[in-house]
Amino acid sequence: MVYPLKPLVGGSEKGKIAIRCRRATDHDKEFLINYQESSKKKLTTGILKQSEGKTIIGGKHGVGMIRRIFETKVRTVVEDGQTIHKFKVMPRPDPDNATATEWMTHEEIEDAIMQPSRQYQYVGSGKIAKVYLEILACDDLPNMETVGHFGNKTDAFVQIVYEDCICNTNVIENKDSPRFLPWTNRAFVLHTAYPSSVINLGVFDYDPGGAAISDHDFVGRVSVDVTNLCPGTEYQLNYTLYDTALIEKRKSNGTIKASA
After folding, report:
1. 160 or 60, greater pLDDT
2. CATH number of the domain that residue 204 is part of
3. Is 87's pLDDT higher than 80?
4. In which domain, by residue range, is 245 found?
5. Domain count, the chain
């Protein structure tokens, strides 16, 4: 259904809006009930799941602000006579590797993010197709923290909105170029009901006190048109993040890398 947009008083048509409606499925009703219960408890939007024996919201692991600001994120070590910079693995080291260290070089992290994801969240109620989506990395995000001069940086997470589902990655704290490692909450199976649906990716700066997505600082967004993708093919997707969907007068707020 397409409707013209008009001013409240006088004037001519100002564009159109297209909407699509359908009957709510059992999945829709269950999702809405869970969402409303989460809102009453002032929880962030996202998928409720079990992880390491504790219930987490949308894959988020928060720490105190003071610790985030002053915690060391980079170490310089000397190995075989060479000076090497190592970075703290966020949000945690590989839980399935008993010898995993919480410090990795840039090259080790870049290699790790390209490895297959360990787990997928299955979301949506569509039955005609599945889209396998992995969020790999963001680069050059603006610093959204008001106390950035103390060393604090953006606590980034990605929210995926697709048809009737909403899901989030882990929060990667204090990183303007976050990396989402294969053992983290980064991979999703999106059940498709309409072949022309668009995957909307939004990057946000996580606010520990936020009760809704609007409470987190918006960084940038991109829409992925799945009609451009061929079935049975794996793509590495690289997009520029913008602060608006409008073409004119928008600015770049970094980039995002995903696999589909």
Report:
1. 160
2. 2.60.40.150
3. yes
4. 52-72+117-259
5. 1
